[in-house]
Amino acid sequence: MIKSPGSDWDPNGCIASAGYVWCEILGKCVRTWIQACEYPENCLTWNDGCNVCGLENGELTFCSEMACFTQGTPQCQVWAPMPVIDYAPPVINPFIGDGH
């Protein structure tokens, strides 16, 4: 029996012939050349759909270990603040001088 393209779902609903694989971290099917199966780089607190976990440098540092009756959608709860980069050069007022 010949299968139709796109009819090869795995137990998680990912279609392998379309390049999808199950990503446990994100809780969804991903194409790894489009979206990496890893924690977001600037995420500090991750919710895996049930438990709250801490992240440091993209690695889990701790997780609550609660039993859950339902699994929610994994997501970042607390993002690291983005650094402020000031691209403007210092302004010197020619009428005031440089302070000397």
What does this structure look like?
This protein is mainly beta and 100 residues long. It has two domains: 8-38, no CATH class; 39-80, no CATH class. The chain has strands at residues 21-23, 28-30, 43-47, 52-56, 59-63, 75-79. The strands form two sheets. The chain has a four-stranded antiparallel sheet with strand order 5-4-3-6, with no helix packed on it. The chain has a two-stranded antiparallel ribbon with strand order 1-2. It is elongated and about 80 Å long. The relative contact order is 0.14.
Structure at a glance:
With about 100 residues, the protein is mostly beta strands. The chain has no helices and 6 strands.
Based on CA atoms alone, the radius of gyration comes out at 23 Å
The tally of structural domains comes to 2
The helix-and-strand class reads mainly beta
CA-CA gap between termini: 89 Å
Number of helices: 0
List keywords for this structure.
about 100 residues, mainly beta, 2 domains, four-stranded antiparallel β-sheet, two-stranded antiparallel sheet, about 0% helix, about 25% strand
List the helices and strands and how they pair.
Layout: E1 21-23, E2 28-30, E3 43-47, E4 52-56, E5 59-63, E6 75-79
Antiparallel strand pairs: 1-2, 3-4, 3-6, 4-5
